[in-house]
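Check these lines:
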Amino acid sequence: MALKQISSNKCFGGLQKVFEHDSVELKCKMKFAIYLPPKAETGKCPALYWLSGLTCTEQNFISKSGYHQAASEHGLVVIAPDTSPRGCNIKGEDETWDFGSGAGFYVDATEDPWKTNYRMYSYVTEELPQLINTNFPVDPQRMSIFGHSMGGHGALICALKNPGKYKSVSAFAPICNPVLCPWGKKAFSGYLGTDQSKWEAYDATHLVKACPGTQLDILIDQGKDDQFLSDGQLLPDNFIAACTEKKIPVVFRLQEGYDHSYYFIATFITDHIRHHAKYLNA
């Protein structure tokens, strides 16, 4: 599959690149960012996937999180895709910020008119890794995933739905129980229809409840002053309770004074890179 390089910038001895390609799953042109650390010049490196939140593109994480130095030091290739298909000319895709463009929610839509293009789950778990494994010096056996908000939800469900695929998972302020929050109800009813039993397949809390057990060591950071926490959009307590009941190891850190922004992410990103490197470089 042809890749078109959009940009390339030297950063901490490595290269931050952005590429465009024609996506089979999403039936549109998609961009993704990829950081190649210095170690990638001499051998295959582990791959760490970042999933961004509502309204984001591939640019937000690479320009605001400050992850490059830690990724360079630990020798991790970091991939950050866009958050939805783009330019599909679907009626209503650009009307609101929390549904449609920039809000793919990492599900495979089953409802018209979304089901043809809005297949972000399959794109992130299958098509994009195959593309990366074919074109870049990564070790397909060493792959992990993390994300923020809607992308934190995406990271958790990708890891929980694919036992053994990812070595580790972490999240910043994830939407933990989308079937019960306004963002999730809006997105899932639009993409998946009114049968709420279908929603549970993309809900981290429900996936944990149905989980026979997992080797994943989950790390979650949550800002205590996050407006979306107090608004009931994130519901981490429900996820923690489910993990506790299933004896699934999770480290949940409530960070005093931090909000939902990239200032929060930038503060703790090195901890998350280190968390993944522990498993990817084992």
